[in-house]
Write a structure and sequence with these properties.
257 residues, five-stranded antiparallel β-sheet
Length: 257
């Protein structure tokens, strides 16, 4: 009997075990789907372990599948399923924005600022297999409204847009009021309901938080400057997910910022 190589045995076990999970998670993806234009096809391709993978590749694919895609563990920005069910149980679209490297460098920040916006699809339950086409349309709507060139400037003033009947309860930090209106219109246009339009009566200025410098706090004998909860920063769309109660999340778009 030949001696077993622990690294090779581990990789082989990972490949056989994890690929089953990858195939199950991306069971809706067809082998003919274009990995260059379809986010889930690209993710399945990147997560699938192959025979000649190095140990680094095995680790990276595992991180992508379990940490970034978030299989088996709810993403930090996704509401728990129980919370969504208590809030009427409608499918939820979550858009995660991340500060650009240039913006972070300009304000000398140690950590990137993030912004999260979401809305619900009040007339959809995705109960049929044919609803896959609706998910594709939703992903296209998001890509059309938020191309890689789109930037949003967050700041200290927040604006609210409340349209509960159509699934929108937005609170947006923006540098200018027109920036907030633009973002609201884009989020409305992402919906699968073409009849949803911007209603001026549902838009309002929520608050202005003026703070010239972040606050400080005494920690372990040293004065530490705390992060500013509402900085002036430029953010871009990094990831969009669809959360369906009882099913889990589907990544609609994923970008490197």
């Amino acid at each position: 009997m030949s001696k077993i190589s622990p690294p090779e045995f581990l990789q082989d076990t990972c490949r056989k075990t994890l690929n089953k999970e990858v195939l199950e998670w991306f069971r809706d993806v067809k082998s003919t789907d274009d990995i260059r234009s379809m986010p889930r096809a690209a993710l399945r391709y990147a997560c699938t372990h192959v025979e000649n993978d190095s140990i680094d590749m095995t680790v990276l694919r595992s991180i992508l599948f379990y940490v970034v895609v978030g299989v088996g563990e709810p993403k930090a920005w996704l509401a728990p399923e129980r919370e969504i069910i208590t809030m009427e149980g409608h499918p939820q679209v979550i858009l995660q924005f991340v500060e650009t490297a240039a913006s972070m460098k300009a304000r000398k920040a140690k950590k990137r600022h993030t912004a999260r916006y979401s809305f619900r699809l009040m007339k959809e339950d995705f109960s049929n297999s044919t609803d896959e086409a609706k998910i594709d349309r939703l992903a296209m709507n998001i890509k059309r409204n938020f191309p890689s060139s789109f930037k949003h400037q967050v700041a200290q003033t927040t604006y609210a847009y409340v349209d509960k009947a159509n699934g929108y309860q937005l609170r947006i930090a923006a540098f200018q009021e027109n920036d907030a209106r633009t973002l609201v219109r884009k989020l409305l246009d992402c919906s699968l309901e073409p009849s949803i339009g911007f209603d001026e009566a549902k838009f309002s200025r929520a608050s202005t938080k003026r703070r010239s410098t972040p606050p400080t706090k005494r920690i372990l004998g040293e004065t530490t400057r705390l992060g500013d909860r509402r900085p002036t920063a430029i953010v871009k769309l990094r990831q969009a997910d669809l959360f369906i109660p009882g099913y889990g999340s589907r990544t609609l778009t994923l970008r490197q910022i």
